[in-house]
Each structure stands twice: as C-alpha cells, then as structure tokens.
Automatic annotation (TrEMBL):
<dbReference type="InterPro" id="IPR051466">
    <property type="entry name" value="D-amino_acid_metab_enzyme"/>
</dbReference>
<dbReference type="GO" id="GO:0043876">
    <property type="term" value="F:D-threonine aldolase activity"/>
</dbReference>
<dbReference type="GO" id="GO:0036088">
    <property type="term" value="P:D-serine catabolic process"/>
</dbReference>
<dbReference type="GO" id="GO:0008721">
    <property type="term" value="F:D-serine ammonia-lyase activity"/>
</dbReference>
<dbReference type="InterPro" id="IPR042208">
    <property type="entry name" value="D-ser_dehydrat-like_sf"/>
</dbReference>
<protein>
    <submittedName>
        <fullName>D-threonine aldolase</fullName>
        <ecNumber>4.1.2.42</ecNumber>
    </submittedName>
</protein>
<comment type="similarity">
    <text>Belongs to the DSD1 family.</text>
</comment>
<dbReference type="Pfam" id="PF14031">
    <property type="entry name" value="D-ser_dehydrat"/>
</dbReference>
<dbReference type="InterPro" id="IPR026956">
    <property type="entry name" value="D-ser_dehydrat-like_dom"/>
</dbReference>
<keyword id="KW-0456">Lyase</keyword>
<dbReference type="InterPro" id="IPR001608">
    <property type="entry name" value="Ala_racemase_N"/>
</dbReference>
<feature type="domain" description="D-serine dehydratase-like">
    <location>
        <begin position="261"/>
        <end position="351"/>
    </location>
</feature>
<dbReference type="InterPro" id="IPR029066">
    <property type="entry name" value="PLP-binding_barrel"/>
</dbReference>
<dbReference type="Pfam" id="PF01168">
    <property type="entry name" value="Ala_racemase_N"/>
</dbReference>
Length: 370
C-alpha cells in the first residue's frame, strides 16, 4: 500500500514539534496562482506567509517578479533573495522611515514602495526622503470597509491623493486596497460583497482620471479576494497564504485549487489518563489566536478533540487510546499557517517522501541588517 503523501521515510531523524514544507506542493500552488492570475505579471505575492528566501527564489524562478511585504525585515529578505520589486504594505512611522531609506540605499537597484494614508505621515516621509536626497515611492492605502488601515473613501481621500502628487520627494504610483474581511465560504456571495465595496474605489479612479493625473497602479486584495480581483483587468493581485495553504482557508475558500504544502510534525509524549494523550505541540508550536477547536487538524488521527494547550503541551481526548503509543508521530495542518510559520526558526524541506534540507525562516526576525 502506498503511504499517505505526507508521511516521511526518515521521520525518526526529525525533532518535534517541527514545521514541514513539501516542495512539490509549493511548486503546485505557485503554478495555480499563475494560472488563476492569467500571467505572472499580475501577481504581487505576499511573503508574510513564508518569510524564507528559498521560497522567494522559487517564485522568481516561476517568473513572478513583484512581492508584497509586511515588515522591513521581509523586504530585506526579498532583496537578499534577488527580488527587484517590492511593496511594503504598511504605513511606516517613527524610525522605520529612516530604516526603509537605508534599505533603499543599500539596494538601489530594487524598486521599493510603501503605503501612506494621512497627511502627517506623508509630511514625515517627504521630509525624510528630502534629507536623504531621494524620491520615495508610495501608494495611497485605501480603506474600503475592513477598517484596519487606509484612508476612508470619503470627501478627503481625493484631495489627499492630489497632495501626495504635489510632494517633490514623493512619487505616488497609485492605490492599495486590502479587503481581507470578506471570507464568506460561498464564492458568489463573497464576490458580490467584494464588488459592491469596490464600487467606491472605482469612483475614486474616475476622479483621478478626470483630474488628468497619471493612471494609477491598483493593488487589490489578498488570498480571500484573489479569485474575485483576478477577474478585474489592470489589477495587481497579492495573495500570500495560498503558497503554503492551510485548514482555515482550505475549508472557507473551496473554489481555490491549492494544496496543503506545510504541516506540523508532533509526537505523543504521554498517556496521562485513559482516553487522554499529550503531544509536544503547544502554544509555541502552532498559532493560538483562534479558539481551541481552530488550531490544528491531524491527518493521521481519527476521532479526537483538542482539549487544551499550554506553552509546550497539547492535550487530546482520543478514541482508540490503547492503540496509541508514546512516541507516535502525528502530522497536522495548521488552521492559520502565517503566524504558525513565524513560530519556527527553520523548516524541514520534504522531497520524494524524505526531509532533505532545512530552510531558515529568516524574516521572522524583526531586523536583519538594516
């Protein structure tokens, strides 16, 4: 009998808990992203999920040349991996502005843009780039309903866009719109909600055109909205989670054809009471921001319930307790892969049923060199 796709022939050599990356599945997911977008040129893949230069190199090898980042460390990681185009999808404040400028100076061949959503931040950027003798590349961050960041689509947003174009040391390239709050499992219902909210963005685009300003670059959505925004011409899509995929999006976004490419390896370390086993997967091994029933799903265990977690322990109620042994290996799919990856210094890379290498999760660090 052929073993399940996720089992490792050399699992006895691997410590636990561990993060496993299945390279062929990552390659599959990259191919599916390109197929959905219709072209590599329309993708601006978010690296906040993987944080590894080796994955950036896989994306580059597939023809994807633009990247989105959440931190300066991620941006530096993209530069180190050979990327030449990135957008840092945060409004930088405090010392981060000067750090970003230093990164620009270290990698002058790389196009780097960041986000702005208010005049005070725009003024701080204008002054900092003027001191450095540089022009800062920026996009206006637009809030079209998520209410996490961005300028609301009100009467002040177009004047702010004009203001950005008037600054001598800023070059405003367009708009960034993240609508990750729409995660309804029904695709048609999700698509309808996304399109309804986007009508106000289209009105802003019309204002920009009527004023004779350059046609703006438009970056829209993340993974949940990817299958909607890919249908919109002249829009850059910036999915990220789908490079590795996870249980949460796998259940919610059924129209998206991605495979689990990252798993967690854990072991049973105790059988403290009948019907109860303890594993070495605690809060420090899997993202714990969701309720206890949305942490991890085991692929090789039936009829179980995660009762509790502490820092290094996970306690399960199980059926078939007598058949389970201390030391048994479990393979789990994280509910949320992005913060889970961030918990690990390195990941085992799986090829042809064996762990063959280890990749450093480099950009989990807040600071690399800059």
């Amino acid at each position: 009998m052929t073993p399940p796709w996720y089992t490792l022939a050399n699992v006895a050599e691997l410590d636990s808990p561990s993060l496993l990356l299945y390279k062929d599945r990552i390659q599959h997911n990259i191919g599916q992203m390109i197929a959905l977008a219709g072209s590599c040129d329309r993708l601006m893949v978010h690296v906040k999920t993987t944080k590894m230069p080796e994955v950036v190199k896989m994306l580059l090898a597939a023809g994807i040349s633009r990247f989105k980042c959440a931190t300066i460390a991620e941006a530096e990681m993209v530069c180190q991996a050979g990327g030449n185009y990135l957008v840092l999808a945060h409004q930088l404040v405090g010392p981060k502005v000067d750090r970003f400028i230093r990164l620009r100076q270290r990698y002058p061949q790389v196009f780097m843009a960041s986000l702005l959503d208010c005049r005070s931040a725009a003024d701080a950027h204008q002054q900092a780039f003027a001191r450095a003798g540089l022009v800062g590349h920026v996009l206006l961050d637009v809030n079209n309903g998520m209410n996490r960041s961005g300028h609301p689509l009100d009467g002040d947003i177009f004047p702010l866009y004009q203001y950005l174009h008037q600054q001598p040391n800023l070059h405003c390239h367009g708009l960034h719109v993240y609508d990750g709050h729409w995660r309804t499992p029904d695709f048609e219902a999700r698509k309808k909600s996304i399109e309804q909210d986007f009508k106000r963005v289209e009105m802003l685009m019309e204002q920009i055109a009527a004023a004779g300003l350059p046609s703006p670059m438009l970056i829209a959505g993340g993974t949940p909205a990817f299958t909607t925004h890919r249908l919109r011409e002249d829009t850059f899509c910036s999915p990220g989670t789908c490079v590795l995929w996870d249980w949460g999006y796998g259940d919610a976004l059924r129209e998206q054809p991605f495979q689990y490419a990252a798993l967690l390896l854990t072991r049973i370390i105790s059988k403290p009471a009948p019907g109860i086993v303890t594993i070495d997967l605690g809060h420090k091994g899997v993202a714990a921001e969701n309720p206890i029933d949305k942490r991890v799903r085991f692929l090789n265990l039936q009829d179980w319930e995660l009762l509790s977690q502490s820092e290094e322990h996970g306690v399960l109620r199980v059926q078939g307790w007598d058949a389970l042994q201390v030391g048994d290996v479990l393979y789990g799919v994280p509910y949320h892969i992005c913060p889970t990856v961030n918990l690990y210094d390195e990941a085992y890379v799986v090829e042809e049923g064996k762990a063959t290498a280890r990749w450093e999760v480099l950009a989990r660090r807040r600071r690399l060199e800059v």
